[in-house]
Amino acid sequence: xxxxxxxIPKENSWEELLQVRPLSPFASVSSDFAKALSQQxxxxxxxxxxxxxxxxxxxxxxxxxxxxxxTEKNTSDQFRLPQGLVFHIAPANVDTLFVYSWMLALLxxxxxxxxxxxxxxxxxxxxxxxxxRLFEDDTYQALRQRNMLVRYGHDDEINLIASAHCDxxxxxxxxxxxxxxxxxxxxxxxxxxxxxxxxxLAFLDAKAVFDTRAFEQLIQHFCNDAFGFDQRxxxxxxxxxxxxxxxxxxxxxxxxxxxxxxxxxxxxxxIPVHLRMEKLIxxxxxxxxxxxxxxxxxxxxxxxxxxxxxxxxPTDLHCGGGLFYEFSVHDLKELIPVLSKKIQTISIFGIxxxxxxQLLSINLCAGVDRIVPIGKALDFHHHWDGYDLLSEFSRxxxxxxxx
Length: 403
Hints:
The protein is an alpha/beta fold. The protein has helices spanning 14-19, 28-44, 49-57, 60-71, 97-108, 122-135, 141-146, 156-165, 175-181, 212-227, 246-266, 273-289, 353-363, 389-392; strands at residues 5-8, 78-82, 85-89, 111-115, 147-151, 168-172, 191-195, 199-205, 237-243, 292-293, 303-307, 323-329, 343-349, 370-373, 383-384, 387-388, 394-398. The protein folds into two domains: 5-197 and 385-398, 3-Layer(aba) Sandwich (Aldehyde Dehydrogenase, Chain A, domain 1), CATH 3.40.605; 199-373, Aldehyde Dehydrogenase, Chain A, domain 2 (3-Layer(aba) Sandwich).
């Protein structure tokens, strides 16, 4: 593994990582590190909303909740220990996402070998500076020995060795990344968590949009969900589905999108120029190949494509950056065709969550991992893409007391 770029800590060895034992779940050194990282992020991350969100997620109250949920699974009949070594491959599209899975694995007591994104964005650079400074403190020597944050290119040898020795392999990335890494065999008892390409939607009741008391908050929350990470996060809404009569939907669309345009004009999201061009190209391609309507755009931040059908939703063509597919339904059941395994998050406004839950359970829909209020789409939870990460990063030992 000669081509490794050791990022954090600067000096470490693969052999030492293999030999050292894991820590106990929620060991004091792990919890203290998480709290210190939270404090640093909240103090120094004001420039980057995603870092503030990460710092808030790592706050003391949430750590206590995570530990409580983990320890509640320990009973007189079973207890849980760390898996051992976790091999993480971080995603390139969401700057801070790798920290969530890494921190959960670390808190449960695992050793970690983490391949960082190759693109060193300002957010990642700032985040790694904070983590690196904390790791220099001798208080966290036990974590320095058990965690390697590295960079390397497309190196089959490193992927082969890390895969052969890990107890859990965590792949964040596109379908192509997952297929590529799967070429490298795991130990027979190892497990793999794949976070593949997903697609999310916002589902709104047209009548609820006219509640003037909630409207400004709706616009703010929708923009937070949609424009964070250039709309490239799997949980960011890319399809907007309306529930209501044709007349209600048309009025709601006019009011809603006017509000979104007004907000993005006052607070422009940092959408790169090349992405604005990609959106226009995507709109033209749809107009030529599919039966769609393309409303005129009055801003560079919001582009819409009104679909005539939800069948064969072209999720792969979406480029992000404020491009929204749109469709309207008169009944919840009309949503069923789109609820494939590709769908991750449904963020709702004015829609009965219980009715949506019944729809999913009665029709045994293949997809959907999360149903959240609009404004919560980007909030990370240890239940993600159908995995309970606290459980996946640990192993259960059953203790039988006999007859």
